[in-house]
Amino acid sequence: MSVPISESCIDQVLNTLKFTPDGLIPAIAQQHNSGEILMMAWMNRDSIEETLRTGHVCYWSRSRQGLWRKGETSGQTQQLIEFRWDCDRDTLLLQVEQAGVACHTGRRNCFFYAVREDKIEKIAKVEIAPEELYN
């Protein structure tokens, strides 16, 4: 994605999207060159604006009630490749270049639980110990 994005384009995007009553919109992060779904998080107007301005993905942390710059403490960053939204304008798809793992559990992606043969399994191994991500 070429940055910077103009203020007028950012305003158009923000005015196009449909946010929840609390000002949020779900965002799915996808590895741009493989299609792997990495994670789902929330964004608000400020995080979208920062993401489009910088090209580095920024989310809204509901638990901390603040901006969450992906990789700020762990180093596991997401570079925005393409910013998309769905036909209802209420869900985002961020195509990204993921550096390292996307999940705070140390796995490549957050979708590692599966139902297989009538039981729940963890289908991905931890690549980086979580305590190594956040020291």
Give me a quick take on this structure:
The protein contains 3 helices and 8 strands.
Mean pLDDT: 95
Structural class: alpha+beta
Please tally the β strands and state the result: 8
Q: Largest sheet, described in full?
A: 4 strands, mixed
Could you spell the SSE succession in H and E letters?
Answer: HEEHEEEEEEH
**CATH H-level name... which superfamily?**
Phosphoribosyl-AMP cyclohydrolase
What does this structure look like?
The mean pLDDT is 95. The protein has a single domain (7-104), classed as Phosphoribosyl-AMP cyclohydrolase (Ubiquitin-like (UB roll)), CATH 3.10.20. The protein is α+β, with helices and mostly antiparallel strands. 18% of the residues lie in helices and 33% in strands.
